[in-house]
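Sample pair:
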Amino acid sequence: MFLASANESLLNAVFSLFPQGSVALTVMAISVVGVTGLALGSIKLKAFSLGIPGTMFTGILIGKWLGMDSFDASMLHFARDFGLILFVYAVGVQVGPGFFANLRKHGLPLNIMAAVIVLTGAAICVAYAYIIPHVVDINAATGLFAGATTNAPALGSAGEALKSVHETDIASQLLAYPTMPAFAIAYPFGLLGVIVAIVILKAIFRVDTQIATEAIEKAEKAQAAELVTINIEVHNENLNGVLLSKLPLLKPKDPGMVISRIMHEGVVSIAKPDSMVYVGDTLLVVGNPDQIEQFRLAVGVESTTDIRQSSPNLKLAHLIVTHNGALGKTLAELGLKQLGIAVTRIARAGVEFTATDHMKLQFGDRVRIVGESSAIDEAGTILGNSLKALNYSRLIPIFIGLALGVTLGCLSTTLGGALPGPCKLGVAAGPLIVAIILSRMGNIGPIIWHMPHNSSQLIREFGITLFTICVGIMAGDGFFQALNQSTGWYWLGLGAIVTLIPLLLVGAIAIKVFKINFLHVSGLLCGSMTSPSLAFTHTLTTSEAPAIAFATVYPLTMVMRVLLGQLLILIFH
């Protein structure tokens, strides 16, 4: 008790140094909330901790204690929106390069189920507004939709919709009450509810996470076998003296297979299009198993000799594309084969491809090559292969991306007058979509959109922390006012329904009907709620399967929730 009183006196003394309503006091309050909230979020109870959302709860306390009149309101609004913009842009840059590849590979079923979770939650909130409008009007329902699904950007987009509907200064007050308090009240169980849903599904379907992990590992090994390396000895007499480029099933534009080395009369050399192939030669082939098997049947038999062990003069290297001159160019245009090397594979955003002459390179691509040391050094000069350049933070592309993002976010439509106000992507979805597209492109001329992992992680966490701090401070008065009334406790229970029902419904269907691995379902549930509770899945398994499923559905989920945050206001307000 004495310690709490002493701390309060200390804070009073600190805040009294600054003029009421000043920028300085607002910055000090944001800093105090950041320090105390992150400290609170770092406290672990078994496997769970609040993390960054802890700043929202300390923000509520500071906002209630000092009162909104103590702050510079325009400063809070700017910090809140700017933090949101930074967060979603960094998320887009992080997931963009592999987003479309993951979507094509295994993302469609997961994204459909994530969309059902989002739409079900929105439908429940709309039902509240129609059935019990005296308890939950559409403003509060929108707050519950954002808070119960732990999606702060949806709250930001709802605020923009309110401003466009009312076009007056009272829009910020409408955002503060009841949308913000409803968001803050529903948020805690939104965090816990994902964990509760995962635990319930695990118990209902009697899931053994060890068996689930082994199934994932088995599937991953099968996927890893999509690119294999095999030695094939030429037995087909019809291929004696044929050019390498004329071999059956070996198509220059086909990314399914590539020959990297040839052993002729005991001498191993780099395979080139004009290399001659003779009966008895051994070819080192890289590609997908099905096509390699067809090639083997047409050419010869699998050899027991691994020519990689018979070529000490040839080295294997992985080079990183960082040179501006290599960006957007194909392997053929760079002339790497003229150096006497073979390019076998290219890895981009965690996805590995068989290399072809017509594949264009992007910044950060990892190129696997085979050749002599001197040739590899020359290739490194052409491609760049600089860790310093890879980890360099480029500020100009970030500002260009942010500008393009908010521009896209401000483009509006009323859908031919169907909506009472203009609908737009807003400061959340606009930068997110732009970041995904730009990072997928890799570069435009000399402008490189790649952002080092450490930089994107810092911008992402700083942005969402700044946003949640400001949301907490601005919700302070309304939060406690709602809790002092029965309405607040109704919101808490109704928010829990919005959290649990969609998760349990879709999760059960995914496991029982579609036979999706429980670990993938866990990541799906966390990603569909854009929830930091993903950390809980690390206590269930050592597999990265939950994180992969999370990243697969996260972008679509984020865009849907941001748009629905506006549409709930624009259609039903």
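The CA atoms of residues 48 and 535 lie 8 Å apart.
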